[in-house]
Amino acid sequence: MAEPKPARDCSDLSDFTFSWLLSYDDKLGLANVLAIIGLFYVAKVSVGLFFRVLTGLRIYIFSQLTRRTDFAVKYGGRWAVITGASEGIGKAFACELARHGMNVVLMSRSSQKLEKVAETIEKEHKVGTLVISVDFSRQDVYPQICNALDGLEIGILVNNVGVMYEYPQYFLDVPEKKLFDLVNVNMLSAIMSGAIINLSSSAGELPTPQMAVYAATKEFIDNFSRALAYEYSFHGVEIQSLRPFYVATAMAYGTKPSIAVPSAETYVKHALQTLGLSRRNTGYWSHSVQGWFQGFCPEWLWMWGASLLNDQIRYKVLRSRKH
Ligand SMILES: NC(=O)c1ccc[n+]([C@@H]2O[C@H](COP(=O)([O-])OP(=O)(O)OC[C@H]3O[C@@H](n4cnc5c(N)ncnc54)[C@H](OP(=O)(O)O)[C@@H]3O)[C@@H](O)[C@H]2O)c1
Questions:
Q1: Which residue is closest in CA terms to ligand 1's atom 41?
Q2: What's the pTM?
Q3: pLDDT tens-digit readout, 237-283
Q4: CA–CA gap between residue 207 and residue 213 (Å, rounded)
């Protein structure tokens, strides 16, 4: 007669789980149980990847081939307002929206630069322009903006204005004025029918050392946009959060355009095609690939890599200033 098995001690949870697996081993085999768990995991990752690729193709590739949206009709206004429109991504948004037949309101501090952009846009795209010179680091500018925009049928607002540190810095080294500018310009300017595009950044996806306040303000924009998008979707307002990685503008410390770092024009051409298709994306296909890899990156590795890169940028900027 077979000896009865000794009773296992299941006094704590891990002992219990272990003994449960062992008892299953008798019937199914431990290897089979682990294979089933592995199969579920592979299926989950594969299905996730499949839908990610499908969404990427839909918003970045097919939309470029098939979509020609009349933004003025879709968003109920012929005017688009772009903050930070004298340079970089904002200027590219202004030109691209004008190419789609929208009149554009251009805002930044420098009226001279804005006038130049407005002149080019009027000449090339035969649309109306309005220039508003405004400093978003001041909190008393909003009544002036409301007065200037009074009576315009605004379909799209691009909350693009943003400032960064002059070079990557540790928190306590950032001048106090810059800290206030970061909060006022990056965050307050976005709290104000149609569609709203908010420029967030992938710098906020994981904590980024030496850009701590910048990345935090960008994460605020993303979180804020997502909640607002839900609240106002019932009123027909579309709110989109764009989360680019590096785009080759002044803010990217003179990085040359490449597949990984598109020019502002290339970036905006792609990003605008995602409006109405996706409430939150990077705006550019290769940035989404970077985001996918970032998703696999443990936080410590990201912070170590970002810190190393930011050390190099700071060294490069400070050295170029000495010469
Ligand atoms: N470039 C990137 O790699 C990158 C990556 C992720 C996210 N983003 C985000 O994309 C947005 C645009 O970035 P960008 O690279 O195009 O920047 P940029 O080239 O430095 O341009 C910034 C624009 O903002 C205006 N501006 C700056 N401070 C202002 C203030 N106090 N009041 C009014 N206007 C002000 C500037 O014009 P004036 O000097 O004439 O005022 C300029 O038109 C930002 O929100 C940024 O955080 C950029």
A1: 109
A2: 0.85
A3: 899 999 999 999 999 888 899 999 999 999 999 999 999 999 999 99
A4: 10
| pLDDT digit string, tens, across residues 62-76 | 888 876 788 999 998
Total residue count of the chain as it appears in this document: 323
* Closest-lying ligand 1 atom to the alpha carbon of residue 90: 16
Is 214 tagged catalytic?
A: yes
* Residue 186 banded pLDDT, cuts 50, 70, 90: confident
Lowest mean pLDDT among 28-32, 148-152, 213-217, 302-306: 28-32
Distance CA 290, CA 236 (A): 32
Q: What's the CA-to-centroid distance between 249 and ligand 1, angstroms?
A: 9
DSSP reduced 3-state for 108? strand
Q: Please pick, among 214, 253, 267, 284, the residue that the annotation labels catalytic.
A: 214
Beta pairing, strands 195-199 & 103-108:
unpaired
What lies within 8 Å, CB to CB, of 249 at 6+ separation is 87, 88, 89, 264
Ligand 1 centroid, distance to 21 Cα (angstroms): 57
Sign of CA dihedral 191, 252, 129, 141: positive
